[in-house]
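User: I'm curious whether this sequence folds into something compact or stays loose and floppy. Could you predict its structure so I can see for myself?
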Amino acid sequence: MTTEVDCIFSDAYAFFDQGLIYDEANHIDDARSMYIKGLALVEQGEKLKKSKKSTLYKDIMEMKKRIQDRLEEIKKGETKLDVKKADSLRTSLMELEDKNTSTDAELIYWLPDNVQLVTINEGETTQAHLHIL
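Assistant: Here's the prediction. I'll summarize afterward.
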């Protein structure tokens, strides 16, 4: 069973997804940070013995390459994300998410560090609060 590997790869997916959101909003430093954290998780998952048996392995390796390419673009000063590349990355992330659909409540409600849920309504911003029952 590859539960630990799948969990690590799922976490990497979440960082890549958040990075893309930042990238699309042209928040390059935040995007780079999320991409780097996601890549670190992929590398951590790759070191585990059963990583290649994970159902997410092939897709996350493909995503890893694309994220590395994007980081190279950012490093070269190409901060504006091409619309076609953004759409392609978004599609790949959605496909990866579909393959990784889970009913595990921890996974559904997990957010990476420093990511917050907020509501913006008519210019007023409110932050979500966690209530443990």
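Summary: The radius of gyration is 16 Å. The mean pLDDT is 81.
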